[in-house]
Design a protein that fits this description.
Helices cover about 45% and strands about 15% of the residues. The protein has 13 helices and 9 strands. Strands 1, 2, 3, 4, 5, 6, 7, 8 and 9 form a 9-stranded mixed β-sheet that branches. α9 (about 250-275) runs antiparallel to α10.
């Protein structure tokens, strides 16, 4: 009998938290699953820890060379999966014991192509209880998504800001395969993936319960300031991708506004955390992004307005920073009036 769920966990230098991740999966109340662990050429004890679990449901795969992006590693798992459903996890996170049982029950009863839930967000290293902050990432709404593509896109991705993290979703594998939905080999791969899912189906069921515990620290991949520079290309690619995907709608106003909000949200999520970690590096990253996009989009385009809008949200005092205004060569006071 095939497993009901294929749980896919990409691993790279995961020795510190991998044991907690795997244990939380194996202790699920729902037992009919396969756990696909994919080692992306780790240089620490990741593989040794993975092999220490004597459970027949575990399949360990290894990439021949380091693929460099979690999305590319997840694609290896998608190809290897045989379950009716697919669930992704990051190697340093954990999941509540009744998650798979409840998610599959909902998916079976609703016939949904994807079921999305909420999560707990843990700052710092949650292994240390003396230095832990816990809060819930919540859904704004639990209503069914619209069958109308334009309404669905606007409501979920603009008004409700549906979370892009793939570990918040249980996917029907046949749906992903039939629609050829996979991750691109670049940064922000989950954004592209989730956009493809929302484009492809209105059968998305949302439940307002936090099954997943996401750990985020300054040393994690998403907290690495160097990734901001890599994100520059991805932001440009995302703009092009959305324009291509939305072209069949023949609605230029909707397309431009939709792209504005998505790019604005991406920039805000990329830059905002770094002002708390290293303001100087964050400002340097902003400068690099601006230099990259000005030759392509000009100074007064929707894309640049998105950049400025996202930055204003994180830095209310930007109009007072003369040095930054001069270094970027943009008239922030004029732009801010147009934005707000």
């Amino acid at each position: 009998m095939n497993p009901k769920i294929s749980v896919i966990v990409p691993m790279y230098n995961a020795e510190r938290f991998l044991r907690f991740c795997i244990t939380s999966i194996l202790e699920q109340t729902f037992k009919n699953f396969e756990l696909i662990l994919i080692d992306d050429c780790s240089t620490d004890k990741t593989l040794e820890i993975a092999k220490s679990f004597a459970d027949p449901r575990i399949k360990i795969l290894q990439t021949e060379k380091n693929l460099g992006y979690p999305g590319a590693v997840r694609n290896v798992g998608i190809d290897a999966a045989i379950g009716e459903y697919i669930y992704f996890m990051d190697h340093d996170d954990v999941i509540l014991p009744n998650a798979f049982e409840n998610l599959t029950n909902i998916a079976d009863k609703s016939g949904a192509d994807a079921v999305t839930s909420t999560s707990w967000y843990v700052s710092s290293d949650f292994i240390n209880e003396d230095d832990m902050t816990l809060r819930k990432i919540d859904l704004c709404s639990t209503q069914p998504v619209s069958e109308n593509l334009k309404i669905r896109l606007w409501h979920e991705m603009v008004e409700q800001r549906m979370h892009f993290a793939t570990w918040l979703y249980l996917y029907r594998r046949k749906f992903l395969v039939d629609n050829k939905i996979k991750f691109p080999a670049e940064v922000a791969e989950d954004v592209f993936f989730t956009i493809d899912v929302i484009f492809a189906t209105s059968k998305i069921f949302k439940i307002k319960f936090p099954y997943y515990v996401w750990r985020h620290s300054k040393n994690s991949a998403s907290g690495d300031i160097s990734r901001v520079y890599k994100n520059i290309k991805s932001i440009l690619n995302l703009s092009d991708y959305l324009e291509e995907k939305l072209a069949p709608l023949n609605d230029e106003k909707f397309t431009s506004e939709f792209i504005f909000y998505q790019i604005d949200g991406a920039l805000d999520s990329y830059l905002a955390p770094f002002f708390k970690i290293d303001e100087k590096k964050a400002m340097q990253a902003l400068d690099e992004i601006t230099k990259a996009i000005k030759p392509r989009f000009g100074e007064n385009t929707l894309f640049v307005r998105s950049l400025l809008h996202g930055y204003f949200q994180g830095r209310n005092a930007i109009n007072e920073n003369k040095k930054l205004r001069e270094s970027l060569g943009l008239k922030y006071s004029e732009c801010s009036c147009k934005i707000f």
